Amino acid sequence: LEKRGLPEDQWERFGLGYAPNDREGLKQALIQRGAKPGDLVEAGMLIAPESGGQPYDRFRDRLMFPILDARGRIVSFGGRAMNPDDRAKYLNGPESPLFHKGATLYGLPEARRILGAESRGEQGIVVVEGYMDVIACQRAGIPAVAPMGTALTEEQMERLWRVSAEPVLCFDGDAAGRRAAYRAIDRALPQLKPGKSFRFCLLEGGADPDDILRERGAPALRQAVATTKPFAEVLFQKEAEAEPLDSPERRAGLKGRLRQQASAIQDKDLAEQYRRDMYERFDAAFPSRRPPQNTGQGYGQGGQGRGRFGGPPPKLGQTVEGAQAMQSLSRAIEPVAAALAHGAIDDPERMDDHLEAIASHGFGDPS
Asked: 188: how many CB neighbours lie within 10 A of its CB?
């Protein structure tokens, strides 16, 4: 802990302790205080061998972190191995009547206290990746929590949204951190609703919050965590990085993936807004190259050697039907109908929900 820059006066604040390298050290200590071995197994403190035999301590030679529920009650423990050769660097207690990994967020009671005590405008709760990152952030006055070594569950998301409308998901800025952020997008996307989203913080240089606090101090960590991107921006980045976009086929594939991602949102109104946002980002990244507009005399302006409507003079022997067709074509298209037709040509998918009406009424132009 001292090597990690955590002074001894902070150990008590976060309830840190040590589990000796002894198979029955905790077991004997708790039994002497009246605990029953069966209860200790159910609580996850002891392991009962499947082959039979006496239960033994689950946590041995580990730095211990208490895991609290939303009301501040200890429901389990996590342990970090002191021996670098240990197979499991971090070990959490098992599921129990008190502890449900998918519903618990490490550090939540302290994060709530920080949110209530500090006046920081729109600052929301921050989700980081590990116990030491939570402790580093909370020491810097940042209301941070962490899941139990797994991706965020739907239940954990709902708990976060009860505290903040837009929690910040904080990851290392290296390739592994981006992959973790993109997995979080896939999991969160169907759950988004108006007033319930996430922002992303990708820390530069591959550093984590514990590194930044130790090397650069609390102000630098607060500034780093405050630099965030909206969910939609990182979603577009995720799909754009999936493959090179150096051909029409690959760009069309990107557009299809963006449409598919937006449709994964269960809230239909929000899904429509995301679809539009994704298309706007696509159009900005790949602007259409249209031919230059004709600046000569248009229809209805007349001109030497041209007919009444700006077209060529009528030919001798022209039929009545031909003359009527020429007259219809010479009229300017209604602006609204022209805009609808242009939109359908430029982006056919936008008309998917209106094909039946278009088939019956066209684009609304009497011509």
From this structure: 21
User: Where is 26: in which H helix or E strand?
Assistant: helix 25-32
pLDDT tens, position by position, 2-31: 788 888 889 999 999 999 999 999 999 999
Distance CA 360, CA 341 (A): 15
174 phi and psi angles, rounded to 5 deg:
-80, 180
| Domains of the chain as residue ranges with CATH | 1-95 (3.90.980.10), 100-287 (3.40.1360.10)
Q: Cα(264)–Cα(260) distance, rounded to whole angstroms?
A: 7
* Cα–Cα separations (whole angstroms), residue 81 to 8, 25, 118, 210: 19, 17, 34, 18
Angle formed at CA 137 by CA 139 and CA 135, multiple of 5 degrees: 65
How many angstroms separate the CA atoms of 40 and 33, rounded? 12
For residue 93, what pLDDT band results from cuts at 50, 70 and 90?
Answer: very high
Of 45, 157, 49, 133, the C-alpha closest to 91 is: 45
Q: In the beta sheet, which residues pair with residue 6?
A: none
Conformation bin of residue 6: beta by default, left when phi > 0, alpha when psi is -120 to 50: beta
**DSSP per-residue letters across 200-256:** EEEEGGG--HHHHHHHH-HHHHHHHHH--EEHHHHHHHHHHTTS---SHHHHHHHHH
DSSP labels for 62-111? EEEEEEE-TTS-EEEEEEEESSTT-S-SEEEPPP-SS--GGG--BTHHHH
Residue 336 burial (CB < 10 Å; 0-12/13-18/19+)?
Answer: exposed
pTM, entire model: 0.76
Dihedral of the CA atoms 285, 291, 294, 298 (nearest 10)? -90
Amino acid at 266: Q
CB 88 within 8 A of CB 49: no
DSSP state of 162: H
